[in-house]
Design brief:
α3 packs across α10, α5 packs across α10 and α8 packs across α9. The strands form three sheets. This protein has a two-stranded antiparallel sheet. The protein has three domains: 56 residues; 190 residues, Lysozyme, CATH 1.10.530.10; 52 residues. The protein is built from twelve helices and six strands. The radius of gyration is 32 Å and the shape is globular. With 332 residues, the protein is mainly alpha-helical.
């Protein structure tokens, strides 16, 4: 075979192999595309938009819907002007946020079953409308939270306000962490604010921005209705957040929350004991009473140190779990 004939033959074989490889590639690509279409995998174009999807095989099993806006709402008996478009849109915003912030809302529902029975009698004692319990819910989601500004507890009380309303705050005791004591302090604030503004709605809103701040805005804007005031976004949303959590908790099924009684956190069964002497070690104190330091602190989070000097022989009430009401964890 001549040299040029050999070269021609080699080139012909290479061309045929290349054509064969192309056919295999095209068949493979077509097969992969067929699989993608059949299982509903979407393809994305250069603009980032989804070009195709099979909804029968690639859909999620729930729908995102608009939460229903109540026809009527009130806070502490004071009517909410829902016919005003701006007010209605405030409520709508908080409904969407809280209905679809499921993790937070479901925890709020569960905790409310435990802690509202503790808060409600204190509100009643101070003649504060029951709706004010939802303030503790939106402030802390019923946890002893600590804010970046140093506000503490269910009611998010600062040290200055705590001392003003008679709460003890020091290295050993911080009564802002006591649900009952902090609720009493909050009630005193609400009483003062209501006497000042003659409106429960303004009293509640002032809890967010302060009485002085609310007074300045009322004087500056020459209106006395909360819904007519131009306030900061946080304070403008404040009452709407309260109203929406009230609505969801009272009508959970309406907003897609289906919790059974066993899903809710049960109220804690406790009894009280008095302490008016120093305590050298709270861990020893707890062990002597058949519980752990951890359980003692859970029921009395206002105890902030491992001991109590109690130099003034002050009487403190400790919450103790009823025997048999909690399952102890055995040591290894």
């Amino acid at each position: 075979m001549k040299e040029n004939e050999y070269e021609n033959m080699e080139k012909l074989l290479k061309d045929r192999m290349l054509q064969s490889n192309r056919k295999i590639y095209l068949i493979g690509a077509a097969f992969i595309l067929l699989i993608m279409v059949s299982i509903g995998i979407s393809t994305t174009g250069k603009d980032g938009n989804v070009k195709s999807v099979n909804p029968e095989t690639h859909g999620i099993d729930y729908k995102i819907v608009q939460p229903p806006l109540p026809k009527e709402m009130n806070f502490a008996g004071e009517k909410v002007p829902l016919k005003n478009f701006e007010v209605a849109e405030r409520i709508d915003r908080e409904l969407i946020v809280n209905v679809y912030w499921q993790s937070s809302t479901i925890l709020g529902l569960k905790r409310a079953n435990r802690w509202f029975p503790v808060i409600e009698p204190v509100l009643k004692k101070y003649k504060i409308p029951d709706d004010f319990k939802y303030i503790a819910l939106i402030e802390s989601n019923l946890t002893n939270a600590v804010s970046s500004a140093g506000a503490v507890g269910f009611w998010q009380i600062t040290e200055e306000v705590a001392k003003k309303y008679g709460l003890e705050v020091n290295d050993e005791v911080d009564e802002r962490y006591s649900v009952e004591k902090s609720t009493e302090a909050a009630c005193q604030y609400f009483q003062t604010a209501y006497n000042k503004f003659n409106s429960w709605t303004l009293a509640a809103a002032s809890y967010n921005m302060g009485m002085n701040g609310m007074t300045k805005q009322i004087e500056r804007q020459k209106v006395h209705n909360y819904y007519n005031l131009l306030l900061s976004e946080e304070t403008s949303r404040y009452i709407a957040r309260i109203l929406v959590m009230k609505e969801i908790i009272n009508n959970p099924n309406e907003y897609g929350y289906y919790l059974t009684k066993k899903d809710l956190y049960p109220p804690l069964k406790t009894y009280q004991i008095e302490i008016n002497t120093p305590v050298n070690d709270w861990a020893d104190f707890a062990m002597e009473r058949g519980i752990t330091y951890k359980i003692l602190k859970y029921f009395n989070p206002w105890l902030r140190d491992t001991s109590l000097a109690n130099k003034k022989a002050k009487t403190y009430l400790l919450e103790m779990p009823v025997k048999g009401s909690i399952e102890p964890v055995k040591e290894n």
